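Weekly modeling sync, notes
Attendees: S.R. (lead), two postdocs, one rotation student

Agenda item 3: backlog of single-chain predictions. S.R. asked that every request posted to the team notebook include the full sequence so nobody has to chase files. The rotation student volunteered to paste the first one in as an example of the format we agreed on. Action items at the bottom.

Example entry:
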Amino acid sequence: MAGKVDIAQFLEEKTGHKFKDPARLERALTHSSARQKAGTNYERLEFLGDRVLGLVVAEMLFAAFPNADEGELSVRLNALVNAETCASIADEIGLHVVIRTGADIKVLMTDTRLMNVRADVIEALIATIYLEGGLDAVRPFIRRYWEPRSRVTGAGRRDAKTELQEWAHQQGGVQPAYAIKERTGPDHDPQFTVEVKVPGFDAALGMGRSKRIAEQNAAAEILYREGVWKRPEEGTQ
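Predicted structure, as returned to the notebook:
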């Protein structure tokens, strides 16, 4: 792994921000599995960064979609600040190479099971920039990576569980039923497998680091399979 100076230079290139506090930057990149002492990991910074990201993205959407109502703006916001999008941006930046974790999970850093870790570090990085320069410093970074995603066709689509519930109702008034099939992994990084059944259709499975994410992925699988949604490689609806 590169040293502190290299990490700072790497992130300055990726974010456009020159970091002033090496200790805070190190905390932003440190998972609790690497250090057990309170205050030495990214959790507090992630809490703040989540709120800053939400504000800046909401501001961006409000300006970009003047004809969108509150419901559409909320859907777009949720899609842009969720763990999947944040982890995707972390991967685009190459953040996994500088995240500090315990040896037991380091080898899994790019695994989908650690999506939330990469998402959390992105939010901690946002908080770090915000604390050093305020909204004026963090806006360019967020706009650089989130604005292109905000304009993707289908970005205003509702969440999969809501979509599946309405679609299932149209198929004869039936309701989706979700059940946890398996829970694996350590407590700090669980992996859930959820099955969803819609009467009259084959069941589908979804996986995720939380029950909610696994349910959403299972619902999306039925929507893709039945042609309600198009898979990303086919183009979104």
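Discussion: group reviewed the output briefly. Residues 4-150 form a domain with the Ribonuclease iii, N-terminal Endonuclease Domain; Chain A fold (CATH 1.10.1520.10).
Action items: rotation student to repeat for the remaining queue; S.R. to check formatting next week.
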